[in-house]
Design brief:
- This protein has 6 helices and 5 strands.
- It is of the alpha+beta class.
- It has a domain of 96 residues.
- Strands 1-2-3 form a 3-stranded antiparallel beta sheet, covered by helices on one side. A two-stranded antiparallel ribbon has the order 4-5.
- The structure holds zinc ion.
- Zinc ion (ZN) binds next to loops.
Length: 184
């Protein structure tokens, strides 16, 4: 199974494919109409071709609201949310959500696990996520940490300076604490 982000992406991809196959035949924008002669609610495409007939009035309006153009716009909006709420590439100890931001001076992630991101959970709800599906999803994996830089000659010389720090006898008397001892 994918993780939550991957699962939503799959649902959107499926919806987009459905829209494209529908608008290949009937264009992107659909309208409803009432046929007085037969007292019938119909769904027409933009060229006036019949998409569906004998619909209940509410169903005709609902279908027209979900014509390919509208659904594709919704998919695009969902993809923008997915692009914001994804794994933070700079956090390596946990699969944090970048879009949820950070808190405190340490800039700790607001959402430690992308599967717990409230924005993604709401988005997934709209795509039919159930507690059972959520429980079956994979856990996201934190991005691998970049290799540690080799200690350079500059770092080593800084260490050496620390080890060979000035003797304590050079500390001015005003700065010497009660337990101060002279060290050569
Ligand atoms: Zn988030």
């Amino acid at each position: 199974m994918p993780d939550l982000h991957g699962w939503i992406t799959q649902q959107i991809t499926h919806l987009e494919a459905l829209c494209r196959s529908a608008d290949k035949e009937h264009g992107r924008d659909w309208v409803t109409t009432w046929e007085a002669r037969t007292d019938d609610f119909e769904l027409l495409d933009s060229s006036g071709t019949l998409v569906a007939r004998s619909l209940l009035p509410g169903a005709a309006g609902l279908l027209a609201m979900h014509d390919p153009a509208s659904v594709l716009r919704r998919c695009e909006a969902d993809r923008r949310i997915l692009a914001r709420h994804q794994i933070d590439p700079d956090v390596h100890y946990t699969p944090a959500c970048k879009g949820c931001g950070t808190y405190g001076d340490m800039e700790l992630p607001e959402t430690d696990n992308l599967n717990d991101c409230p924005e993604l959970l709401d988005l997934a709800y709209a795509h039919g996520l159930t507690p059972e599906i959520l429980a079956s999803l994979d856990q996201p994996v934190p991005p691998p940490a970049p290799p540690r830089p080799e200690p350079s000659a500059v770092n080593l010389s800084a260490y050496m300076r620390l080890w060979t720090a000035r003797p304590t006898s050079s500390v001015p008397p005003a700065l010497r604490g009660p337990n101060w001892k002279a060290r050569p």
